[in-house]
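tool_log.txt
---
The assistant was asked to compare two proteins side by side. It first ran the structure predictor on the initial sequence, then on the second. Raw inputs and outputs are pasted verbatim so the downstream comparison step can read them without reformatting.
(1)
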Amino acid sequence: MTIKIVELYRDYLAVNGDVGNVFVLARRMRLAGIDVEEIQVNEGDDLPEGADIVTIGSGPGSAVRAIAPELQRHAETLQSWAAAGVPMIAVGGGFHLFGRTVSFGEAGTVQGAGVFPMDTDANVARVRTDAFAADSNYGLLVGTENHSSESVVDGGTAVPLGTVRNGRGNRVAPNGARHEGIVVNEAVGTHLGGPVLVLNPRLTDHIIEVATTRRGETYTKNAEHESIDRVVDLARTVLIDKANLG
């Protein structure tokens, strides 16, 4: 059985090394003996008939505006995949485009895919956090943060990906809570760069486990995974120490 990773609009939305998210998903599955097919969907392409994992990366406002009509064209399919429990990882500009709207002030507002019950103001002061960190159900998530946006997430079925320990994340809630990202079923949206899945193996393995279980596959890690994770731990330690997170 082959696990299909569908990557959306790499030509527009991969400016922060987001291709690394696809690489690490494929690499960890192949090390476990699982066949993987990497499918790139570019401007003008149709979506494949099905997907086991969907990824979309980040890009500048010009790329978000340019590719928004493509996301609208595929909105119904992407929403149905998310509702069915297909794991997704959407980062930065792609995270915003998976919401309902992205506002650029005088440059106008674009419609997103509606996977996430969320609206984003992409016309605020830029924030850069070299050691961005958030507590989550997947442990302490670490990476970088670089965006000029504030995202407002509805309640209900959507929950935050995590609670910010260092950085800004989404818009600060009226009660002062500092949340980061969003989770709807198994679709994850985040501002975390790094790339996020390279630096956070627990989240990566969760996505893989969901995808493989849905297809009747078993994901079993081995010594090669452990060797990779030791190297990742060193990189994580640098960021954690830089943010004085202890």
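(2)
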Amino acid sequence: MYMDYHHHTNNSIDSKAVMQEVCEQAISRGIKEICFTEHYSVNPVAPTYGHMDFAKYQQDIKDSQDAYGDRLTIKMGIELCEPHLMMDVYEQKLSSIPFDFIMGSVHNIGNQKLRLHLRANEETFYDDYFSEMYKLVSDADIDVLAHIDLMKRYAVQEGHEVYVFEQYKDQIAAVLEKAIQRGIGIEINTSGLRSSLGEALPTPQIVSLYHDLGGRILTLGSDSHKAETVGAGIQEAAQIAKQCGFTHICQFDKREPRLVALR
């Protein structure tokens, strides 16, 4: 069963995709379930601050479910930027919204975009990123960690190398162990396969380590911002999951995970 659990529309600040057009493309590509995960931050200095209109978003979800619900399961999710910070504000803003799925991501460190933080901290930026991810998974109320090693995208764009897994394995393992302890999953995000990076986020090494440590909550997501790329790379992500020892992935309903067999 092919599911795309990371997609953005024009409810996100960085996408112009229309939800119903995404749904039509998903159906045409044989996707059976999609979860929309719009960017949201309560931090006034974050780029994603202030864009989200939750009334419009919920109406878009309802309209899409009414139009396509017999052919496509449509779930309402959100991608929270640094949800371990300003947690009381997140709770206040989100507690009344019936999300199916909440992702957490690190897009900023110390109120700096990752790219700017990297430029200012060329010797420590990977350490800084994984340290921030550990803080996130220790405190935030989320279901899945989004693109765990996102920093490598900016590193490559800025002329640096992708990190050496063994060098950061202990830091990464600490993040994964904390996630497992708190019932938080990870995703295989295929956006890197569509860029010069040429690999998924995270690497299969991290996915394997998560499995070896006992983690079983895994989602697959395209992180697409366009209707045309809905579901892109999901079959490749499913193969990575299998190679890393997974026999099931997860779907979510009202924030409860359910295992679905990989085919």
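---
observation on (2): The mean pLDDT is 96. The CA atoms of residues 34 and 135 lie 29 Å apart.
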